């Protein structure tokens, strides 16, 4: 069968994948000149140009508004075939606690069947996954069944939006019928998973002020309203007794229709202590991916050590809301502001500053690309495909959706939970690179066959 010989082809390319990832991980491509010299990012970008050029893409680099460089590639397919855009990024997080790494940060090291090193999964593992899929198609089929475009970003981890600015400006260059954003991962090793939603975000700073300056708590405490206590009461109104987020005007009873997230596993993943409850009246997946969640990110108050007997004149907190699809960041932020203002106690002065806002994202919920991906993933992994949401936001996905409203956008990749992306000892399971590359190669074939004209 063609599938079996493609499986054998991809398996035979895993030695090269290891060598490729070894080279890529050796570049310290943190896109912050305060952390690593910019030539490290340049080396990684050049490597991508070289490697994808060798599998048959015409390559170019494009400067972006934040000073980073995007790598672009294109290989036209047969006439009438659809176009697929492959996304990944070559920049990485800093080591974050170099002394906690058990293997060298910038050296791909094999241990217990996993490959360790910064970027091994996020996102250099995904670069190598794309590369392996294209290499397999080229060697096995002699070329690609459809038009293939590549965009590899150089500042994703910085959040500075270089590619987000570039996409609308170069819409024709990047336009595609299907977009594979390879910067997420499977729910668990061996469980093929599409990430179908990303949470949005709304954050504000709220300051309550009572006095023109601090006063002695012994002399004046009692009749003076303590702004910090007022703030605590205000923050308390954001959750009910069960831990559900309760913001006026924000729906909070939705449920998740995709993969179940067992509470035991969630406890382990979050290192939740014995006796501490998983909160909320929905399932873990409901609470994580279908409902809003409010967090207090910080409060400006005097430290305990060095605190004095005084009532502070003012207190400030930063409140962050994570949002499921079904609202916009702006609408949720408006609701949060109104909710807080309506509950300020004791006539305290209230000032609210809007800090951040991002819209939730929904990927393809149905269409020829999703159909082709589902069959291809199940074939590659011999396991039913799951769908999950993700807590973090990827603003680029919203830019893709706005710029290419017709395109089917799918999020996948090699970053399963054991990878510990962004943490010390990041690693990748090579079988995830292998099976995801196989799924992608099978997808390109299948999608070209059903979506061609
Ligand atoms: Zn990433």
Could you walk me through the main structural features you see in this protein, from its secondary elements to its overall organization?
By secondary structure, the chain is α+β, with helices and mostly antiparallel strands. It has 14 helices and 18 strands. Strands 1-2-6-3-7-17 form a six-stranded mixed sheet, with helices on both faces. A four-stranded antiparallel sheet has the order 11-13-9-14. A three-stranded antiparallel sheet has the order 4-5-18. A hairpin with a 5-residue loop joins strand 1 (58-63) and strand 2 (69-75). The longest helix has 22 residues, at 430-451. It starts with a helix and ends with a helix. The structure holds zinc ion. Zinc ion binds next to loops.
Feature tags:
single chain, 453 residues, alpha+beta, 4-stranded antiparallel sheet, 14 helices, 18 strands, 35% helix, 22% strand, binds zinc ion
User: Can you summarize the main beta sheet?
Assistant: 6 strands, mixed
Number of helices: 14
pLDDT below 50 for ≥5 consecutive residues: which ranges?
none
The helix/strand class is alpha+beta
What are the distinct ligands in this entry? zinc ion
Alpha carbon gyration radius:
24 Å
Kindly state the mean pLDDT as a whole number?
95
> Which strand order do you get reading across the main beta sheet?
1-2-6-3-7-17
The fraction of residues in strands falls at 15-25%
């Amino acid at each position: 069968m063609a599938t079996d010989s493609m499986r054998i082809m991809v398996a035979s390319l895993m030695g090269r994948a290891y060598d490729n990832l070894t080279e890529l991980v050796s570049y310290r491509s943190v896109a912050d000149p305060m952390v690593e010299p910019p030539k490290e990012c340049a080396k990684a970008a050049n490597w991508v140009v070289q490697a994808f050029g060798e599998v048959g893409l015409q390559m170019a680099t494009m400067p972006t508004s934040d000073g980073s460089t995007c790598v672009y590639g294109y290989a036209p397919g047969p006439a009438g075939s659809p176009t697929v855009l492959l996304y990944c990024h070559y920049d990485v997080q800093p080591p974050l606690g170099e002394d906690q790494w058990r293997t060298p940060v910038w050296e791909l090291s094999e241990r217990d069947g996993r490959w360790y090193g910064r970027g091994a999964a996020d996102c250099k593992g995904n670069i190598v996954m794309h590369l392996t899929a294209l290499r397999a198609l080229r060697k096995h089929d002699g070329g690609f069944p459809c038009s293939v475009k590549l965009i590899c970003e150089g500042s994703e981890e910085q959040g500075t939006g270089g590619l987000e600015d570039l996409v609308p400006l170069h819409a024709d260059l990047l336009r595609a019928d299907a977009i594979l954003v390879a910067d997420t991962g499977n729910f668990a090793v061996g469980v093929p998973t599409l990430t179908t939603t990303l949470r949005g975000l709304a954050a504000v700073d709220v300051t309550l002020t009572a006095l023109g300056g601090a006063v002695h708590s012994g002399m004046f405490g009692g009749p003076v309203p303590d702004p910090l206590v007022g703030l605590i009461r205000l923050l308390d109104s954001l959750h009910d007794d069960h831990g559900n987020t309760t913001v006026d005007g924000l729906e909070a009873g939705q449920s998740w229709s995709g993969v179940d997230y067992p509470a035991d596993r969630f406890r382990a993943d979050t290192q939740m202590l014995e006796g501490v409850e998983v909160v909320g009246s929905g399932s873990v997946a409901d609470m994580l991916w279908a409902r809003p969640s409010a967090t207090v990110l910080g409060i400006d108050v005097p430290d305990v050590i060095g605190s004095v007997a005084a009532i502070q004149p003012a207190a400030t907190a930063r409140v962050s809301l994570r949002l499921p699809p079904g609202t916009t960041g702006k609408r949720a932020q408006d609701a949060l502001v109104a909710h807080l203002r309506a509950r300020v106690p004791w006539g305290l002065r209230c000032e609210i500053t809007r800090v951040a806002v991002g819209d939730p994202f929904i990927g393809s919920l149905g269409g020829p690309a999703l159909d082709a991906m589902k069959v291809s993933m199940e074939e590659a992994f011999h396991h039913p495909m799951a769908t999950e949401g993700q807590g973090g936001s990827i603003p680029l996905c919203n830019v893709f959706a706005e710029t290419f409203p017709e395109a089917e956008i799918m999020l996948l990749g090699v970053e399963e939970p054991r990878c510990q992306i962004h943490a010390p000892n990041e690693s990748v399971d090579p079988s995830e690179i292998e099976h995801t590359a196989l799924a992608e190669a099978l997808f390109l074939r299948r999608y070209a066959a059903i979506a061609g004209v």
